[in-house]
């Protein structure tokens, strides 16, 4: 009997997102596999799905004249391991905390060469941002779009601090009091563009990337990409988890320019955050059978503050 998944080496053995049997793929699936053959993301990875949308939208907006700087982490490892780097865009691999500085250097290099046509994107995870470097890029207003993929588990790689919700929503702290409100911190710098997006709405994500690439100066996009491993969910629940985070107010979607919020995605109705965590075993009680009521109440309070702060309900 053939195994249900093809396993690939990427620092550890992980189940790749590959159709199970080589000779039973449809023509469309085979073509998609050939195009994405160098990716090694875990099954159900939200960051891999969102990154394809971000890079694709950026290339369309710039006429294929873009370069990406990837911070070390899951996304960088999964796209650079195996046969090689995905060929869709030139990429530079940086350290975990200095992607913003490397991207700023790339911008300076192209400026020295008189090249104003090449745009630069930096990509990193919420657990891999060097904060001083990140803030410095905003202060200098370097012409970089920084995209942060928020796994909701402080995952620069392999669940560095399990159970955290680093930047869920526009800045709630995790239950131990850790975490930073990265979208609001970026907003406080008064840079040309700040936005939040979700892997549950790729159309909105790609529209915001296109908007950001149409502007000059420092820009920041914070994307919610729940990690099945870090959130302890089934692979097929990642997008649903992200959608419920938006609909509960836990992850508000908004856009801002020069420190002022210009648009927000309003809610038709407010869902309780308990629905968002029904499939996340990390939030269960000691027995793993019932949710921890105190923790859910604390998270619900965060969602309620977000709804009030951003005016998400009419």
Please explain how this structure is put together:
The strands form two sheets. The chain has an eight-stranded mixed beta sheet, sandwiched between helices. Strands 1-2 form a two-stranded antiparallel ribbon. The longest helix has 18 residues, at 293-310. With 314 residues, the chain is of the alpha/beta class. Mean pLDDT is 76; it is low at 1-26, 28-38, 161-178 and 284-289. Helix 3 (74-80) links the parallel strand 3 (66-70) and strand 4. It has eleven helices and ten strands.
Task: Summarize this structure as a short list of keywords or feature phrases.
314 residues; two-stranded antiparallel ribbon; 10 strands; 8-stranded mixed β-sheet; alpha/beta; 11 helices; disordered N terminus
Q: Can I get a quick summary?
A:
By secondary structure, this protein is of the alpha/beta class.
* Biggest sheet architecture: 8 strands, mixed
The backbone outline, from C-alpha atoms, is globular
Strand content: 15-25%
Provide the succession of SSEs: EEHHEHEHEHEHEHEHHEEHH
Helix content: 25-40%
Average pLDDT level: 76
Structural class determined from secondary elements: alpha/beta
Distance between the termini: 56 Å
Strand order of the largest sheet: 4-3-5-6-8-7-9-10
pLDDT < 50 runs, ≥5 residues: 1-26, 28-38, 161-178, 284-289
- Taking all Cα atoms into account, the compactness measure Rg is 19 Å
Assembly status: single chain
**Strands, total number:** 10
Number of helices: 11
